[in-house]
Every structure is written in C-alpha cells, then in structure tokens.
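R.M. (postdoc): so does anyone remember the format we settled on? I'll just put the structure tokens first.
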C-alpha cells in the first residue's frame, strides 16, 4: 500500500490503519521530512513494515524518481491512496497570489494523475485485485 501525504492527517490515519490491519509493506510519501520520520517511527514501533520516502508530488520528476525507487526496493503497489493535498492563500480567490493557485492545482489536481500513471500499468497488467483511492479535501471547496 502506498499513501501520499502520509506524515499527518488522514494520510497518517490510513497508514496507521494499514499497519493495524497487517497490510504488509506500507509506503509513506510526504514532502515534510521531519513529520514523515516521526510517523514512520510510530508505525514501525506498532509493528509495521514501512518505507518512508520524501517526495514532492507537485514535481513529476520527483514522483517518477520515487516511483522507480519504490518498484526497485519494495515492488509493485497493490493499493494506492492519493491523499496529499494543500490549501494555499487566504481570503477571496482573486486576492490570492498566482503561485498559491498554481501550487494548489499542482498538488491537488495534477499530482494524483502523475502518481497514478506511475503505478497503474503494473496494476492493470497484474490482473489481480488492485485499488486506487483518490481523495479531495473539503478545504479545497
């Protein structure tokens, strides 16, 4: 199982549940290295087999490099949870900086597509039971 945005919030809960339910290898992706390390240590102490990777899902190159490492070090992904998300800017939409709007779209809209494209071909080729879950934060509304 691979969870993006796994260091905190819902991602951390999904990873914790996977460890509790003995899902096997749980791959944690997050851009926040310190929080990721803390979550990984917590899950390992609970008996989980976790593989933390610092990944900026807003960067297709970072996604591709991390996906290559996961395939080489862990193997194929059976369950993908596209959970990473951000909310940038305050106030009205038109008051937000263009960079905030762009970063929000990169993480919330494009990243799940880039991450899924990395793992979907092997999921389809396996012919087995594979799952993809993509979430959207209500904050994004």
């Amino acid at each position: 199982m691979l969870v993006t945005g796994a260091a905190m919030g819902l991602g951390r809960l999904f990873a914790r549940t996977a460890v509790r339910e003995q899902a096997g290898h749980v791959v944690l992706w997050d851009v926040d290295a310190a929080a990721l390390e803390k979550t990984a240590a917590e899950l390992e102490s609970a008996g989980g087999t976790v593989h933390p990777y610092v990944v900026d899902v807003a960067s297709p190159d970072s996604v591709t490099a991390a996906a290559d490492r996961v395939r080489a070090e862990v193997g194929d992904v059976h369950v993908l949870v596209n959970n990473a998300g951000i909310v940038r800017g305050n106030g009205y939409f038109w008051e937000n900086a263009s960079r905030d709007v762009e970063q929000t779209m990169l993480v919330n809209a494009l990243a799940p597509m880039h991450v899924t494209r990395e793992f979907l071909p092997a999921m389809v080729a396996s012919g087995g039971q594979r799952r993809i879950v993509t979430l959207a934060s209500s904050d994004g509304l």
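R.M.: ...and that's the designed sequence above, right after the tokens. Also worth knowing: The first strand starts at residue 2 and ends at 4. The CA atoms of residues 71 and 77 lie 8 Å apart.
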